[in-house]
Specification:
The chain is of the alpha/beta class. It has 2 domains: 34-246, Uncharacterised protein PF07075, DUF1343 (Rossmann fold), CATH 3.40.50.12170; 262-406, Aspartate Aminotransferase, domain 1 (Alpha-Beta Complex), CATH 3.90.1150. The chain has 13 helices and 12 strands. It has a 7-stranded mixed beta sheet, with helices on both faces. Strands 10-12-11 form a 3-stranded antiparallel beta sheet. A two-stranded antiparallel ribbon has the order 7-8. Strand 5, helix 4 (154-168) and strand 6 (171-175) form a beta-alpha-beta unit. The chain is globular.
Length: 416
Protein backbone atom coordinates (compact mmCIF):
# COMPACT_ATOMS: atom_id res chain seq x y z
CA UNK A 1 0.00 0.00 0.00
CA UNK A 2 1.47 2.03 0.94
CA UNK A 3 2.71 4.72 2.72
CA UNK A 4 3.94 1.62 4.08
CA UNK A 5 7.18 2.97 3.00
CA UNK A 6 8.70 6.25 2.02
CA UNK A 7 9.41 4.99 -1.49
CA UNK A 8 5.79 4.24 -1.85
CA UNK A 9 5.08 7.91 -1.38
CA UNK A 10 6.06 8.36 -5.00
CA UNK A 11 3.06 6.69 -6.58
CA UNK A 12 -0.11 7.56 -8.44
CA UNK A 13 -3.43 6.03 -9.32
CA UNK A 14 -2.71 6.76 -12.97
CA UNK A 15 0.40 4.60 -12.84
CA UNK A 16 -1.62 1.84 -11.20
CA UNK A 17 -4.16 1.95 -13.99
CA UNK A 18 -1.36 1.52 -16.50
CA UNK A 19 0.13 -1.29 -14.44
CA UNK A 20 -3.16 -3.15 -14.39
CA UNK A 21 -2.76 -3.97 -18.06
CA UNK A 22 0.89 -4.98 -17.93
CA UNK A 23 2.36 -8.44 -18.38
CA UNK A 24 3.82 -9.80 -15.16
CA UNK A 25 7.26 -11.28 -14.97
CA UNK A 26 6.21 -13.47 -12.06
CA UNK A 27 5.76 -16.92 -13.49
CA UNK A 28 2.91 -19.34 -12.99
CA UNK A 29 2.50 -20.61 -9.41
CA UNK A 30 3.78 -24.05 -8.52
CA UNK A 31 0.27 -25.31 -7.92
CA UNK A 32 -3.10 -24.35 -9.31
CA UNK A 33 -6.21 -23.49 -7.33
CA UNK A 34 -8.37 -26.47 -6.41
CA UNK A 35 -11.91 -25.60 -7.49
CA UNK A 36 -13.20 -28.55 -5.47
CA UNK A 37 -11.99 -26.86 -2.31
CA UNK A 38 -12.98 -23.20 -2.62
CA UNK A 39 -12.05 -20.65 0.03
CA UNK A 40 -15.05 -19.11 1.77
CA UNK A 41 -14.05 -15.66 3.01
CA UNK A 42 -14.89 -14.16 6.37
CA UNK A 43 -17.22 -11.66 4.75
CA UNK A 44 -19.01 -14.53 2.98
CA UNK A 45 -19.51 -16.18 6.36
CA UNK A 46 -20.78 -12.91 7.80
CA UNK A 47 -23.27 -12.30 5.00
CA UNK A 48 -24.42 -15.91 4.92
CA UNK A 49 -25.26 -16.22 8.57
CA UNK A 50 -23.17 -14.42 11.20
CA UNK A 51 -24.91 -11.06 10.62
CA UNK A 52 -27.95 -12.48 12.41
CA UNK A 53 -25.98 -12.36 15.66
CA UNK A 54 -25.83 -8.57 15.53
CA UNK A 55 -29.23 -8.63 17.24
CA UNK A 56 -30.27 -5.30 15.80
CA UNK A 57 -27.07 -3.49 16.65
CA UNK A 58 -25.72 -0.83 14.29
CA UNK A 59 -22.46 -1.22 12.42
CA UNK A 60 -19.64 0.76 10.87
CA UNK A 61 -17.56 -0.82 8.12
CA UNK A 62 -13.79 -0.32 7.81
CA UNK A 63 -12.98 -1.25 4.23
CA UNK A 64 -11.75 -0.31 0.77
CA UNK A 65 -12.14 -1.81 -2.74
CA UNK A 66 -10.40 -5.02 -1.60
CA UNK A 67 -13.24 -5.73 0.85
CA UNK A 68 -15.22 -7.92 -1.52
CA UNK A 69 -16.87 -11.31 -1.25
CA UNK A 70 -15.68 -14.38 -3.12
CA UNK A 71 -18.10 -13.37 -5.89
CA UNK A 72 -16.52 -9.93 -6.12
CA UNK A 73 -19.32 -7.93 -4.50
CA UNK A 74 -18.42 -5.11 -2.12
CA UNK A 75 -19.24 -5.89 1.50
CA UNK A 76 -20.65 -2.37 1.78
CA UNK A 77 -23.07 -2.95 -1.07
CA UNK A 78 -24.08 -6.40 0.14
CA UNK A 79 -24.65 -5.23 3.72
CA UNK A 80 -26.49 -2.11 2.60
CA UNK A 81 -28.81 -4.23 0.50
CA UNK A 82 -29.83 -6.26 3.57
CA UNK A 83 -32.50 -4.15 5.26
CA UNK A 84 -31.88 -5.93 8.57
CA UNK A 85 -28.27 -4.75 8.78
CA UNK A 86 -28.08 -1.14 9.89
CA UNK A 87 -24.90 0.44 8.53
CA UNK A 88 -24.25 3.87 10.04
CA UNK A 89 -20.89 4.85 8.53
CA UNK A 90 -17.88 3.76 6.50
CA UNK A 91 -14.22 4.15 7.43
CA UNK A 92 -11.40 4.33 4.87
CA UNK A 93 -7.68 3.58 5.40
CA UNK A 94 -4.66 4.84 3.45
CA UNK A 95 -5.58 5.23 -0.25
CA UNK A 96 -9.20 5.92 0.72
CA UNK A 97 -12.47 4.04 0.61
CA UNK A 98 -12.19 3.69 -3.20
CA UNK A 99 -8.44 2.98 -3.20
CA UNK A 100 -7.44 5.72 -5.65
CA UNK A 101 -5.45 8.09 -3.41
CA UNK A 102 -1.67 7.92 -3.76
CA UNK A 103 0.53 6.43 -1.05
CA UNK A 104 1.10 8.77 1.85
CA UNK A 105 -1.43 11.33 0.62
CA UNK A 106 -3.94 12.66 3.14
CA UNK A 107 -7.42 11.22 2.63
CA UNK A 108 -10.43 13.42 3.34
CA UNK A 109 -13.80 12.43 4.77
CA UNK A 110 -16.74 12.41 2.38
CA UNK A 111 -20.09 10.85 1.52
CA UNK A 112 -20.28 7.57 -0.36
CA UNK A 113 -22.06 8.31 -3.63
CA UNK A 114 -23.58 4.85 -3.99
CA UNK A 115 -25.02 4.38 -0.49
CA UNK A 116 -25.18 7.94 0.81
CA UNK A 117 -23.32 6.84 3.94
CA UNK A 118 -20.79 9.13 5.64
CA UNK A 119 -17.18 8.11 5.00
CA UNK A 120 -14.69 8.87 7.77
CA UNK A 121 -11.03 8.98 6.82
CA UNK A 122 -8.56 7.09 9.00
CA UNK A 123 -5.66 8.54 7.04
CA UNK A 124 -6.31 12.23 7.46
CA UNK A 125 -6.24 14.51 10.52
CA UNK A 126 -6.61 11.40 12.68
CA UNK A 127 -5.77 7.73 12.24
CA UNK A 128 -7.90 6.63 15.18
CA UNK A 129 -11.69 6.68 14.94
CA UNK A 130 -12.87 9.49 17.20
CA UNK A 131 -15.74 9.38 19.67
CA UNK A 132 -17.82 11.50 17.27
CA UNK A 133 -17.11 9.15 14.36
CA UNK A 134 -18.28 6.20 16.43
CA UNK A 135 -21.44 7.85 17.73
CA UNK A 136 -24.40 5.54 17.20
CA UNK A 137 -22.23 2.57 16.16
CA UNK A 138 -22.20 -0.64 18.17
CA UNK A 139 -20.00 -2.94 16.07
CA UNK A 140 -17.11 -2.16 13.70
CA UNK A 141 -16.59 -4.60 10.83
CA UNK A 142 -13.07 -4.76 9.40
CA UNK A 143 -12.85 -6.16 5.87
CA UNK A 144 -9.63 -5.23 4.05
CA UNK A 145 -7.21 -7.47 2.17
CA UNK A 146 -3.69 -7.43 3.61
CA UNK A 147 -0.51 -8.49 1.76
CA UNK A 148 1.32 -10.31 4.56
CA UNK A 149 3.96 -7.63 5.13
CA UNK A 150 4.54 -5.75 8.39
CA UNK A 151 5.08 -2.35 6.69
CA UNK A 152 1.68 -2.45 4.96
CA UNK A 153 -0.42 -0.01 6.94
CA UNK A 154 -3.83 -1.65 6.84
CA UNK A 155 -3.07 -3.81 9.87
CA UNK A 156 -2.00 -0.68 11.76
CA UNK A 157 -5.37 0.87 10.89
CA UNK A 158 -7.00 -2.29 12.22
CA UNK A 159 -5.07 -1.97 15.47
CA UNK A 160 -6.07 1.69 15.86
CA UNK A 161 -9.72 0.77 15.22
CA UNK A 162 -9.43 -1.87 17.94
CA UNK A 163 -7.88 0.65 20.34
CA UNK A 164 -10.69 3.13 19.74
CA UNK A 165 -13.26 0.37 20.17
CA UNK A 166 -11.74 -0.57 23.53
CA UNK A 167 -11.78 3.08 24.60
CA UNK A 168 -15.38 3.79 23.59
CA UNK A 169 -17.00 0.45 24.33
CA UNK A 170 -17.53 -0.83 20.79
CA UNK A 171 -17.16 -4.36 19.46
CA UNK A 172 -14.86 -5.26 16.56
CA UNK A 173 -15.55 -8.06 14.11
CA UNK A 174 -12.65 -8.89 11.79
CA UNK A 175 -13.84 -10.67 8.66
CA UNK A 176 -10.83 -12.82 7.90
CA UNK A 177 -9.09 -13.03 4.53
CA UNK A 178 -6.15 -15.06 3.15
CA UNK A 179 -2.56 -14.07 3.56
CA UNK A 180 -1.73 -13.87 -0.18
CA UNK A 181 1.90 -14.88 0.31
CA UNK A 182 1.03 -17.82 2.53
CA UNK A 183 1.05 -18.69 6.20
CA UNK A 184 4.16 -20.84 6.50
CA UNK A 185 7.22 -18.69 5.81
CA UNK A 186 8.31 -16.22 8.48
CA UNK A 187 11.23 -13.94 7.62
CA UNK A 188 13.11 -10.84 8.57
CA UNK A 189 14.03 -9.01 11.73
CA UNK A 190 11.46 -8.69 14.49
CA UNK A 191 10.65 -5.01 14.95
CA UNK A 192 12.61 -3.32 17.72
CA UNK A 193 10.08 -1.24 19.73
CA UNK A 194 12.47 1.73 19.44
CA UNK A 195 11.45 1.89 15.77
CA UNK A 196 7.71 1.66 16.32
CA UNK A 197 5.72 3.64 13.75
CA UNK A 198 2.53 3.45 11.70
CA UNK A 199 4.31 1.00 9.38
CA UNK A 200 5.22 -1.20 12.32
CA UNK A 201 3.38 -0.98 15.63
CA UNK A 202 4.33 -4.27 17.26
CA UNK A 203 7.42 -6.53 17.46
CA UNK A 204 6.61 -8.95 14.66
CA UNK A 205 8.81 -9.92 11.68
CA UNK A 206 8.68 -8.27 8.27
CA UNK A 207 6.99 -11.39 6.88
CA UNK A 208 4.76 -12.73 9.63
CA UNK A 209 2.77 -15.48 7.90
CA UNK A 210 -0.52 -14.58 9.61
CA UNK A 211 -3.98 -13.55 8.44
CA UNK A 212 -5.56 -10.28 9.54
CA UNK A 213 -7.83 -12.21 11.90
CA UNK A 214 -4.88 -13.96 13.50
CA UNK A 215 -3.01 -10.67 13.82
CA UNK A 216 -6.07 -9.11 15.46
CA UNK A 217 -6.08 -11.89 18.06
CA UNK A 218 -2.35 -11.40 18.69
CA UNK A 219 -2.65 -7.62 18.96
CA UNK A 220 -5.70 -7.77 21.19
CA UNK A 221 -4.41 -10.33 23.66
CA UNK A 222 -0.63 -10.37 23.73
CA UNK A 223 -0.10 -6.69 22.97
CA UNK A 224 -2.90 -5.66 25.28
CA UNK A 225 -5.45 -3.75 23.20
CA UNK A 226 -8.26 -5.50 25.07
CA UNK A 227 -11.27 -4.71 22.89
CA UNK A 228 -14.29 -6.97 22.54
CA UNK A 229 -13.10 -8.86 19.48
CA UNK A 230 -14.65 -11.48 17.26
CA UNK A 231 -12.94 -12.99 14.21
CA UNK A 232 -15.21 -14.43 11.53
CA UNK A 233 -12.98 -17.19 10.18
CA UNK A 234 -12.66 -18.43 6.61
CA UNK A 235 -13.41 -21.92 5.47
CA UNK A 236 -11.12 -23.85 3.15
CA UNK A 237 -7.95 -21.78 3.56
CA UNK A 238 -4.80 -23.60 4.64
CA UNK A 239 -1.45 -22.17 5.58
CA UNK A 240 0.36 -23.48 2.51
CA UNK A 241 -1.98 -21.60 0.16
CA UNK A 242 -0.83 -18.60 -1.82
CA UNK A 243 -3.39 -16.37 -3.50
CA UNK A 244 -3.55 -18.33 -6.78
CA UNK A 245 -4.32 -21.47 -4.75
CA UNK A 246 -7.49 -19.88 -3.38
CA UNK A 247 -9.20 -19.48 -6.74
CA UNK A 248 -10.24 -15.97 -5.71
CA UNK A 249 -10.06 -12.89 -7.93
CA UNK A 250 -7.48 -10.30 -6.86
CA UNK A 251 -8.60 -6.71 -6.36
CA UNK A 252 -5.61 -4.31 -6.19
CA UNK A 253 -5.05 -3.49 -2.55
CA UNK A 254 -3.34 -0.19 -3.37
CA UNK A 255 -2.03 1.60 -6.47
CA UNK A 256 1.33 -0.19 -6.47
CA UNK A 257 0.02 -3.68 -5.66
CA UNK A 258 -1.99 -4.20 -8.85
CA UNK A 259 -1.58 -8.00 -8.89
CA UNK A 260 -1.69 -10.67 -6.21
CA UNK A 261 1.80 -11.76 -7.12
CA UNK A 262 3.15 -8.23 -6.73
CA UNK A 263 2.81 -8.95 -3.02
CA UNK A 264 5.51 -11.62 -3.36
CA UNK A 265 8.17 -9.12 -4.49
CA UNK A 266 6.90 -6.23 -2.34
CA UNK A 267 9.16 -7.16 0.57
CA UNK A 268 12.05 -8.05 -1.73
CA UNK A 269 12.36 -4.59 -3.30
CA UNK A 270 10.14 -2.42 -1.10
CA UNK A 271 12.92 -2.45 1.50
CA UNK A 272 15.81 -1.37 -0.74
CA UNK A 273 14.98 2.07 -2.08
CA UNK A 274 16.33 4.07 0.86
CA UNK A 275 19.73 2.60 0.03
CA UNK A 276 19.61 4.19 -3.42
CA UNK A 277 18.33 1.13 -5.30
CA UNK A 278 15.32 1.76 -7.54
CA UNK A 279 12.53 -0.82 -7.33
CA UNK A 280 10.41 -0.11 -10.38
CA UNK A 281 7.90 2.24 -8.76
CA UNK A 282 6.64 4.50 -11.53
CA UNK A 283 6.67 1.72 -14.13
CA UNK A 284 4.08 -0.82 -15.21
CA UNK A 285 5.92 -3.40 -13.09
CA UNK A 286 6.16 -1.95 -9.57
CA UNK A 287 8.55 -3.80 -7.25
CA UNK A 288 9.76 -6.10 -10.04
CA UNK A 289 13.05 -4.30 -10.74
CA UNK A 290 16.21 -3.53 -8.80
CA UNK A 291 18.98 -1.24 -9.97
CA UNK A 292 19.68 2.35 -10.93
CA UNK A 293 22.31 4.50 -12.66
CA UNK A 294 25.57 3.00 -13.77
CA UNK A 295 24.78 -0.62 -12.95
CA UNK A 296 26.33 -3.42 -14.98
CA UNK A 297 23.17 -5.53 -15.39
CA UNK A 298 25.01 -8.75 -16.29
CA UNK A 299 27.42 -8.45 -13.37
CA UNK A 300 24.57 -7.59 -11.00
CA UNK A 301 22.62 -10.60 -12.23
CA UNK A 302 25.65 -12.90 -11.93
CA UNK A 303 26.31 -11.79 -8.36
CA UNK A 304 22.74 -12.65 -7.40
CA UNK A 305 22.72 -15.98 -9.25
CA UNK A 306 25.78 -17.16 -7.32
CA UNK A 307 23.78 -16.76 -4.12
CA UNK A 308 21.38 -19.58 -5.10
CA UNK A 309 18.26 -17.88 -3.77
CA UNK A 310 15.39 -20.38 -4.14
CA UNK A 311 12.33 -19.70 -6.27
CA UNK A 312 13.68 -16.65 -8.11
CA UNK A 313 15.53 -15.85 -11.33
CA UNK A 314 17.13 -12.52 -12.25
CA UNK A 315 17.31 -11.12 -15.76
CA UNK A 316 19.31 -8.07 -16.94
CA UNK A 317 16.85 -5.26 -17.61
CA UNK A 318 16.42 -1.56 -18.39
CA UNK A 319 13.41 0.53 -17.36
CA UNK A 320 12.29 4.15 -17.27
CA UNK A 321 10.01 5.36 -14.45
CA UNK A 322 7.34 7.84 -15.49
CA UNK A 323 7.25 9.75 -12.21
CA UNK A 324 9.09 10.25 -8.94
CA UNK A 325 12.76 11.03 -8.33
CA UNK A 326 13.87 8.83 -11.25
CA UNK A 327 11.23 10.08 -13.71
CA UNK A 328 12.12 9.80 -17.42
CA UNK A 329 15.57 8.41 -16.66
CA UNK A 330 16.65 5.04 -18.04
CA UNK A 331 17.86 2.76 -15.26
CA UNK A 332 19.73 -0.54 -15.43
CA UNK A 333 19.75 -3.64 -13.28
CA UNK A 334 17.67 -6.79 -13.01
CA UNK A 335 14.07 -7.88 -13.30
CA UNK A 336 12.82 -10.30 -10.66
CA UNK A 337 11.10 -13.41 -12.02
CA UNK A 338 9.54 -15.56 -9.31
CA UNK A 339 9.67 -19.18 -10.47
CA UNK A 340 8.41 -20.89 -7.31
CA UNK A 341 6.43 -18.58 -5.04
CA UNK A 342 6.10 -21.30 -2.41
CA UNK A 343 9.85 -21.27 -1.72
CA UNK A 344 10.81 -17.69 -2.62
CA UNK A 345 12.29 -15.86 0.43
CA UNK A 346 11.38 -12.23 -0.20
CA UNK A 347 13.03 -10.60 2.83
CA UNK A 348 16.26 -12.54 2.34
CA UNK A 349 16.19 -11.34 -1.27
CA UNK A 350 16.08 -7.72 -0.09
CA UNK A 351 19.34 -8.26 1.79
CA UNK A 352 20.89 -10.08 -1.17
CA UNK A 353 19.99 -7.20 -3.50
CA UNK A 354 21.51 -4.64 -1.16
CA UNK A 355 24.69 -6.69 -0.74
CA UNK A 356 24.99 -7.10 -4.52
CA UNK A 357 24.52 -3.35 -4.94
CA UNK A 358 27.21 -2.81 -2.31
CA UNK A 359 29.57 -5.00 -4.35
CA UNK A 360 29.05 -2.62 -7.31
CA UNK A 361 29.63 0.40 -5.05
CA UNK A 362 25.99 1.37 -5.57
CA UNK A 363 24.73 0.89 -2.03
CA UNK A 364 24.29 4.33 -0.49
CA UNK A 365 21.99 5.61 2.25
CA UNK A 366 21.70 9.36 1.80
CA UNK A 367 22.31 11.60 4.77
CA UNK A 368 19.07 12.00 6.69
CA UNK A 369 17.58 8.81 5.26
CA UNK A 370 19.09 6.50 7.85
CA UNK A 371 16.06 6.85 10.12
CA UNK A 372 13.70 6.12 7.22
CA UNK A 373 15.54 2.93 6.31
CA UNK A 374 15.65 1.83 9.93
CA UNK A 375 11.92 2.50 10.29
CA UNK A 376 11.20 0.41 7.18
CA UNK A 377 13.22 -2.52 8.51
CA UNK A 378 12.08 -2.00 12.11
CA UNK A 379 15.70 -2.02 13.26
CA UNK A 380 19.02 -0.32 12.59
CA UNK A 381 20.92 -3.61 12.59
CA UNK A 382 20.47 -4.30 8.87
CA UNK A 383 21.76 -0.90 7.82
CA UNK A 384 24.69 -0.99 10.25
CA UNK A 385 25.62 -4.51 9.15
CA UNK A 386 25.57 -3.54 5.48
CA UNK A 387 27.64 -0.45 6.27
CA UNK A 388 30.17 -2.68 8.03
CA UNK A 389 30.48 -5.10 5.10
CA UNK A 390 28.74 -7.96 6.90
CA UNK A 391 27.77 -10.89 4.67
CA UNK A 392 24.14 -11.58 3.76
CA UNK A 393 24.38 -14.97 5.48
CA UNK A 394 25.39 -13.36 8.77
CA UNK A 395 22.65 -10.74 8.55
CA UNK A 396 19.99 -13.36 7.84
CA UNK A 397 21.28 -15.67 10.58
CA UNK A 398 20.97 -12.84 13.11
CA UNK A 399 17.19 -12.93 12.66
CA UNK A 400 16.77 -16.54 13.72
CA UNK A 401 16.40 -16.14 17.52
CA UNK A 402 13.68 -13.53 17.05
CA UNK A 403 11.89 -15.64 14.45
CA UNK A 404 11.93 -18.73 16.69
CA UNK A 405 10.47 -16.74 19.59
CA UNK A 406 7.83 -15.18 17.36
CA UNK A 407 6.77 -18.56 15.93
CA UNK A 408 6.30 -19.87 19.45
CA UNK A 409 4.24 -16.80 20.35
CA UNK A 410 2.06 -16.78 17.25
CA UNK A 411 1.14 -20.48 17.61
CA UNK A 412 -1.40 -19.52 20.27
CA UNK A 413 -3.24 -17.20 17.87
CA UNK A 414 -3.33 -19.22 14.64
CA UNK A 415 -6.78 -20.19 13.35
CA UNK A 416 -5.84 -22.47 10.43
Amino acid sequence: MMQSRSAFLRTSAAAAATAAGATLSVRAPARAANPARPVVLGDDMFLNDAWRELRGRTVGIVTNPSGVTSLGESLVDAAHRNSEITVKALFGPEHGIRGTVGAGEVVGSSTDEKTGLPVHSLYGPTRHPTKAMLDGIDVLLFDIQDVGARPYTYVSTMAYVMEAAAQYGKDVWVLDRPNPIGGTQVEGPVLDPKFKSFIGLYPIPERHGMTVGELARLFNDHFGIGCTLRVISMQGWTRDMLWPDTGLHWVPTSPNIPYARTALVYLATGLIDEAGVNNGIGTTRPFEYAGGYGYDPAAFRDALVTRHIPGIEFEPADWTPTHGFWANKTLHGVALNVTDPHTFPNVRTAVELLAAARAQNKYHVAAGHEQIMDRDWGTDTVRLALDAGTSPDAIIASWEPGIRAFKALRAKYLLY
